[in-house]
From TrEMBL:
<feature type="transmembrane region" description="Helical">
    <location>
        <begin position="603"/>
        <end position="624"/>
    </location>
</feature>
<keyword id="KW-0813">Transport</keyword>
<keyword id="KW-0812">Transmembrane</keyword>
<keyword id="KW-0445">Lipid transport</keyword>
<keyword id="KW-1015">Disulfide bond</keyword>
<keyword id="KW-0472">Membrane</keyword>
<dbReference type="InterPro" id="IPR004765">
    <property type="entry name" value="NPC1-like"/>
</dbReference>
<feature type="transmembrane region" description="Helical">
    <location>
        <begin position="1202"/>
        <end position="1225"/>
    </location>
</feature>
<feature type="transmembrane region" description="Helical">
    <location>
        <begin position="636"/>
        <end position="660"/>
    </location>
</feature>
<comment type="similarity">
    <text>Belongs to the patched family.</text>
</comment>
<keyword id="KW-0325">Glycoprotein</keyword>
<feature type="transmembrane region" description="Helical">
    <location>
        <begin position="1076"/>
        <end position="1109"/>
    </location>
</feature>
<feature type="transmembrane region" description="Helical">
    <location>
        <begin position="335"/>
        <end position="360"/>
    </location>
</feature>
<dbReference type="Pfam" id="PF16414">
    <property type="entry name" value="NPC1_N"/>
</dbReference>
<feature type="transmembrane region" description="Helical">
    <location>
        <begin position="1169"/>
        <end position="1190"/>
    </location>
</feature>
<dbReference type="Pfam" id="PF22314">
    <property type="entry name" value="NPC1_MLD"/>
</dbReference>
<keyword id="KW-1133">Transmembrane helix</keyword>
Length: 1229
């Protein structure tokens, strides 16, 4: 046995020493193609006859020329064919080491003198008496196989954002599951350019394998140019630039912000300790305790007068002067309006009509971009720049289709048995494809089909008119040529293998859809958890429509989208959809349409809410003595008049805006009346109830009585109204159109509401008083009661409750201390949770409950497998032909290690931080590769104009390194942008880059690229936070790229279609703090002035308002209300409304003649508490409750929840905490 083994070794050695050729010369096969001849009798290697051919072969096979007179197993024709076939490796040309590794093997089995040692002809044929090769087996070293695969595995394909290996590992394999064996199987047996199948066999025995040298991608072959080293993008081990780092984690305690948590704990502890100490001291000094209302009531008149004198001295003259001045002003206004009541009402109506006429010119917008992004905002400027210099982002019309009642199943895919998701079921797919064909028929009868409006990136002057097949449709049917019959004719194994293979290698030539591009598996399949999509539970149909800047040009697209939505609704509603499918759909116009529809649909809810408040106001303004006098004492007409005044204020707001040309939204028009009614109705209640409760004024005339009423309530009305107007006026400074517009309309409406209340409503009050004096019935003024008892001194049920029960209870010592502690704890909890509040506005919240878009949003989050595209735009003219500039951009050979393309590549490898999921498509790299490929650049001989590379009669214009690159760039860049890719020239730039450059010809007819972009993709984004975090990090990347480019006047910025909606959240906390801060300052200043420069009363008002806002923010956290433009408006509004709950009581406290702080607090709460409760709290409460039945989430969450919180929290602070706090101020006022 030992001798036999030795003999075999010797024979193998002898065979190696005396190697010869098994393939020599060229023959013609059965198909008429030239292939290698098969030598049944081995032929000895020979020298090449043509020195030019030898020189060409030496450039790609230098190892074969390692002796003076080399011999080869190929003649001149074979050698020339070998150099031509070497072009097949150009697709890996970005990494010369990879190319040389591959060519080393090609050279060995094609021309090596040792060919017979490692090449075996497996099959051969005969034609014309000559034997030709059909297939061969090549033995290679396993080390060579592994090293070559490693050097090629990460070579990028810029136009796809992927790697070359995705389409160069055979059907069904990509970069995720490729390996050295599969790679060489593709090179030899799956490569469509290979002349015949080559089967590779690996071995560790160097004597049995080809003598091929191989290098890792981070190494160079001997004699190579140092600048030919592979780039970082194509060989990650060469990357030297810093990777992106995650932002520092905030200091947290549990899940809360650590700093605010500590502040909250300290605040609660300090206040609790102080209150406890005060309570203990109060208990020990009962004799000095002035907290008992009983003691207060028994104080002697002399003591009371003495305290009043002390109080007058403390207030000082300035406070009295201001207060008296305001009282005189409002008394005069009251007398004047009451004296000329009819004239005032007529003049008011004429003014309202004149101003309101402007509302006919009002512009109402439903465009989400105009609503959420200011024209001067960065995102809007960048969007406008992108749309102007390139084409606007295409319009997406999409359907998600889930499987129903379909199970997973097994399938044998090559050597493995895999479990496939229900989305691969043939019956299900057949129903999906039938639906697709129906959609493609939409509008065909009228000549307005999809092909008239679709996005067709491969279409140019040489391809003919756009047809349905040339439209970009992302569907699995594209893998079968959009041919339903072809799909059904395939066996189960064939159609499944096709889908699985193309899901793994979407950019493979065999997987391109009829429109010329790939079927993106992340769009065509959904609901998967595996990287190869094999467990998909749903599919998608996406119809891409071209977008236009001109609205008129966009009309056909909008019309087709309307028909698409109508068709889908009809299919779903009438049960035409297969029971195997559950469908969600949306058109590009759907969101805008639904926003407009929800605004109109909520009109009924808004009107009901108004009606409830109308009825409540009309009823509660009156006074009840008996059923006989019920219509005498009621104030229905007066209440309706007050409501009409509110509507007039809104009309004036709309009119002024119409005259000035300020656009608005339907939502603003609907909410502003509600806001003005809710804010302004308290003045009506305060005014009427103060007038009703006036004592000792029977001797005065009606105008004088009305004047006294206005003198009492006017200053507090001015305080609350001016504070609210200032708050909303500050909101006008916001950059967000939604906030700015709302605040502007509210400011104008509140201003007119206040003016009309102190004029027209006062006139109505005087007329109503005259009616009562004459015993005329409300609603029926012509009817007069004969005799009526004097009006009772009873001030009403609520007034009695507050005076007799609620106020005495609240003023008990232990109750007051308890209130202080509880409210401190409440505000401390709110402080602790505020930083943890969610930020954003989920799109589905703006949709009505019955909207088809809601389901679409839900399915999109669950099923979408690819994120939105993001474009890194270079703004400013650059000479891209300049070698220095090119190296700053490109990511290939000899490019800067930290080039722009390289940085984006690094970012794509850190998706969890950067939200970038693919390496960029780099036109500057692909243009360079295209220019150097023999099969790409061509021109017509007669005029040297662009010629598609598929026309063989045209002349090649491949770049020659001896010529000027700037000249070549200027002349042939347009050719590249017109050339469509195919297997013979995969670098054609038309579909990927035709829209990526904005260029012009200068006076010298040289190209000037004004702007350009590189496209990549965000990762799948599912929440508002992920969207604005993606924007934030993209901008950070853009800033780094601008610094890298380092050219004056040129910047690189990121753009994606969603940026205009989510930019607001990058600064929402700053905007919130600023808006509320300015509002609080306005409240402080207004209160300080109106109260006669009373610093302490201003501070008290500010403190209570601040507590209300803080507690509102805490409520938002616990009630899952996100911070956004809508909630920010509500928080600003809560500042104004909070003043209502505080202002009247503080004013009553200051005007009180009681000697002690607790007495003044008791008087203020008793006299104004019932009016605040009935006029502010209950009025808003009943109107808000109706909003709970709204159809859209935005109304339920941001209006029902927040308004309800506003009312409850405001009432608790105004009617509980504020009186208690005032009771502790002693003689500070």
């Amino acid at each position: 046995m030992v001798y036999l083994h030795l003999a075999l070794v010797v024979l193998a050695f002898l065979g190696h020493v005396h190697a010869d050729c098994t393939m020599y010369e060229m023959c013609v096969n059965d198909e008429g193609k030239k292939v290698n001849c098969y030598n049944k009798v081995p032929v000895k290697p020979k020298e090449l006859k043509d020195p030019n051919v030898a020189e060409q072969l030496k450039t790609i096979c230098p190892r074969l020329f390692n002796k003076d007179k080399p011999t080869f197993c190929c003649d001149d024709a074979q050698a020339q064919y070998t150099t031509t076939m070497s072009a097949m490796s150009n697709i890996f040309g970005r990494c010369p080491t990879c190319v040389k590794n591959i060519l080393a093997n090609v050279c060995e089995f094609s021309c090596s003198p040792d060919q017979s040692n490692f090449v075996k002809v497996k099959t051969h044929g005969t034609n014309g008496g000559k034997d030709f090769v059909k297939s061969i087996e090549v033995t290679i070293l396993e080390e060579y196989m592994n090293t070559t695969y490693e050097s090629c595995s990460r070579v990028a394909l810029p136009s796809s954002g992927g790697v070359v290996i995705d389409g160069a590992c055979g059907e069904g394999f990509n970069s995720f599951n490729c390996n050295p064996t599969r790679f060489f199987d593709y090179l030899g047996n799956g490569n469509p350019v290979a002349p015949f199948p080559v089967y590779y066999k690996s071995t560790d025995n160097e004597n049995l394998a080809a003598k091929t040298e191989s290098k890792n991608c981070n190494e160079l072959f001997e004699g190579s140019d140092p600048d030919s080293m592979c780039s970082c993008i194509d060989c990650p081990s060469l990357c030297t630039i810093d990777r992106y780092k995650p932002e520092a984690t905030a200091f947290e305690i549990w899940i809360l912000n650590g700093y605010t948590f500590i502040v909250a704990i300290v605040l609660a502890a300090v206040v609790t300790i102080i209150v406890t100490v005060l309570a203990i001291r109060s208990t020990r000094k009962k004799s000095m305790d002035d907290g008992s209302i009983v003691e207060h009531k028994t104080s002697s008149d002399n003591d009371k007068n003495s305290d009043i004198e002390s109080k007058d001295q403390m207030l000082g003259s300035r406070k009295n002067v201001v207060n008296e001045f305001l009282q005189k002003i409002f008394r005069a206004i009251g007398i004047a309006m009451a004296t000329h009541s009819i004239l005032v009402i007529c003049l008011s109506s004429w003014v309202v009509i004149g101003i309101g006429y402007g509302a006919f010119d009002l512009k109402v917008t439903t465009n989400p971009v105009e609503i959420w992004a200011a024209p001067g905002s960065r995102s809007r400027i960048e969007k406008d720049y992108f749309d102007t210099n390139f084409k606007p982002f295409y319009r997406t019309n999409q359907i998600f289709i889930k499987t129903v009642g379909i199970s997973t199943f097994k399938h044998k895919y090559y050597e493995n048995e895999i479990t496939l998701g229900p989305a691969f079921n043939r019956t299900f797919l057949f129903e999906v494809f039938k639906l697709q064909k129906k959609i493609e028929e939409i509008g065909q009868a009228e000549g307005k089909g999809l092909e008239k409006v679709c996005y067709s990136p491969m279409t140019n002057e040489f391809t003919g008119p756009i047809t349905i097949d040339r439209c970009t449709v992302q569907s699995l049917l594209g893998l079968f040529g959009n041919d339903l019959e072809k799909f059904m004719s395939l066996s189960d194994d064939d159609y499944l293998d096709t889908i699985i293979s193309c899901a793994r290698t979407p950019y493979s030539v065999k997987c391109l859809a009829p429109y010329g591009g790939p079927v993106e598996p992340g769009l065509a399949l959904g609901g998967m958890t595996l990287d190869d999509y094999t467990d998909a539970t749903a599919v998608g149909l996406t119809f891409i429509v071209a977008n236009k800047l001109d609205i008129d040009e966009l009309e056909p697209a909008m019309e087709w989208e309307t028909k698409f939505v109508d068709f889908m609704k009809e299919e779903v509603d009438q049960g035409h959809i297969s029971p195997l499918m559950d469908i969600a759909f949306s058109a590009e116009r759907s969101i805008e349409d639904e926003v407009e529809r929800v605004s109109k649909s909520e009109m009924v809810t808004i009107l009901i809410s108004y009606a409830v408040m109308f009825i409540y106001i009309a009823i509660m303004l009156g006074h009840f003595r008996s059923f006989r006098t019920i219509l005498l004492d009621s104030k229905i007409i007066l209440g309706i008049g007050g409501i009409i005044i509110v509507m007039c204020a809104v009309i004036c707001s709309l009119g002024v805006s119409g005259y000035v040309g300020i656009s608005t939204t339907l939502l603003t028009i609907e909410v502003i009346p509600f806001l003005v009614l809710a804010v302004g109705v308290d003045n009506i209640f305060i005014m009427v109830q103060t007038h009703q409760r006036a004592k000792g004024m029977d001797h005065l005339s009606i105008p004088e009585k009305v004047g006294e009423t206005m003198a009492k309530v006017g200053p507090s009305m001015l305080l609350t109204s001016l504070s609210e107007i200032c708050c909303f006026a500050i909101g006008c400074l916001s950059d967000m159109p939604a906030v700015n517009t709302f605040a502007l309309y509210a400011t104008i409406a509140l201003f007119f509401d206040f003016i009309l209340q102190i004029t027209a409503f006062v006139a109505l009050l005087a007329l109503d008083e005259a009616r009562v004096k004459k015993n005329r019935l409300d609603l029926f003024c012509c009817i007069r009661l004969s005799s009526v008892d004097d009006i009772s001194d009873d001030d009403g049920f609520l007034y009695g409750i507050f005076k007799k029960y609620y106020t005495p209870f609240l003023m008990k010592t232990w109750v007051r201390y308890t209130v202080l502690v509880l409210f401190t704890i409440l505000v401390s909890i709110s402080i602790a949770v505020i930083p943890t509040m969610s930020v954003g506005l989920d799109q589905e919240m703006s949709m009505p409950e019955d909207s088809h878009v809601l389901k679409y949003f839900e399915y999109m989050k669950d099923l979408m497998g690819i994120g939105p595209p993001v474009y890194f735009v270079t703004k400013g003219g650059i000479d891209y032909a300049d070698e220095t500039v090119r190296k700053k951009y490109c990511g290939g050979i000899a490019c800067n290690p930290s080039s722009i393309t390289t940085q984006l590549f690094i970012a794509s490898g850190q998706t969890n931080i950067t939200y970038i999921s693919r390496q960029p498509s780099s036109w500057i790299d692909d243009f360079k590769d295209w220019s150097e490929m023999d099969t790409c650049c061509k021109y017509f001989n007669n005029n040297e104009s662009f010629c598609p590379h598929t026309i063989e009669t045209c002349t090649s214009c491949t770049y020659n390194p001896a010529e000027s690159w700037p000249d070549y760039f200027d002349k042939y860049l347009p050719f590249f942008l017109n050339d469509n890719p195919d297997p013979s020239c995969g670098k054609g730039g038309h579909p990927a880059y035709a829209d990526a450059l904005h260029w012009e010809l200068n006076e010298q007819y040289n190209i000037e690229v004004k702007s350009s972009y590189m496209m990549t993709y965000h990762s799948v984004l599912r929440s508002s936070k992920e969207y604005y975090e993606a924007l934030k990090y993209a901008r950070k990347i853009g800033e780094n790229l601008t610094l890298t480019l380092d050219i004056d006047g040129v910047e690189i910025f990121p753009y994606s279609v969603f940026y205009v909606y989510f930019e607001q959240y990058l600064t929402i906390w700053t905007d919130t703090v600023q808006s509320i801060g300015f509002s609080l300052i306005a409240v402080l200043l207004v209160t300080f002035i109106i109260t006669g420069f009373s610093f302490l009363s201003s501070i008290v008002t500010l403190l209570v308002v601040l507590m209300i806002v803080i507690d509102m923010a805490g409520l938002m956290y616990f009630w899952d209300i996100m911070l956004n433009a809508v909630s920010l408006v509500n928080l600003v509004m809560s500042v104004g409304i909070a003043v209502e709950f505080c202002g009247h009581i503080i004013h009553a406290f200051e005007r009180s003649q009681e000697p002690t702080a607790i007495g003044k607090a008791t008087h203020a709460l008793s006299s104004m508490g019932s009016s605040v409760f009935s006029g502010i709290t209950l009025t808003k409460f009943f109107g808000i409750i109706v909003l709970a039945f709204a159809k859209s989430q935005i109304f339920k969450i941001f209006y029902f929840r927040m308004y309800l919180g506003m009312v409850i929290i405001g009432a608790l602070h105004g009617l509980v905490f504020l009186p208690v706090m005032l009771s502790f101020l002693n003689k500070q006022f």
